[in-house]
Amino acid sequence: MNLYVLTYIVPAILAIGVIGIACLSVKKVNGIGRILYSYLFLNLLIDLASRTMVILRENNLYAFSFSSLLDLTVYFLVFRSLGLGKRAPAFMTFVGLIYVLAETYYLDMSDYESLQPYSKSLCALIIVTMGIALLLKLMKSDEAYPRRHISLILASITFFSLEMILLLPFNFLINVDSNLTLYLWLLRIAFMSMFYAYITSYIYSNGRNRKRSRYGFL
Predict the structure, then answer these.
(1) Is 215 inside any structural domain?
(2) CB neighbour burial string for 18-56, b if at least 16 within 10 angstroms, e if fewer
(3) 71-116, pLDDT tens digit by residue?
(4) Which of 12-16, 116-120, 207-211 comes out lowest in average pLDDT?
(5) Quick one: angle between helices 147-166 and 62-81, nearest 10?
(6) Count of the separate structural domains present in the chain
(7) Does residue 217 form part of some domain?
């Protein structure tokens, strides 16, 4: 089966999540659930815009930059909502956003042979660092913490760790036509599909089990 056809699995899962939650429980979702719902919706828009650019024969690599900005912004808000500190995470997020904007401006996205962006991997590294810092903070706390939030943090750390590693050899992935690159892209599609499906289930359960904690409606 053609790899491009398989990439439609990701927007299909995003669309199912966005439409399904909108029909079933979006009115019950507050706080972190709404942030993640916006994350799914905006990722779907970025994916569709990227495919439209391919049809129009335009450079769609800018989608990675927009995706990086979205990932970093959303997960800063998510981890803050779950109890992460403010100063260091805010500084790291600011540095990451500036780097993505600078890289997008200065890199020649049309020079495929020498193109090697690091924004996606850098943003993933920052997200993983914030996630681990949040886990360590929660481990030191004597207060009980909802399991579904712990699961969300662990799932996010796992996904973005894999994302960081997979996209480090970006130039190799877009320029080398081999079975290895094919398997790596398929692996990324599988990880993204599972992660977005997990976020959808988290939002749905969050809407059903909403209750107040010291962090507000989570």
Answers:
(1) no
(2) beebeeebbeebebbbebbbebbbbbbebbeebbeeeee
(3) 999 999 999 999 898 889 999 999 999 999 999 999 888 888 888 8
(4) 207-211
(5) 150
(6) 1
(7) no
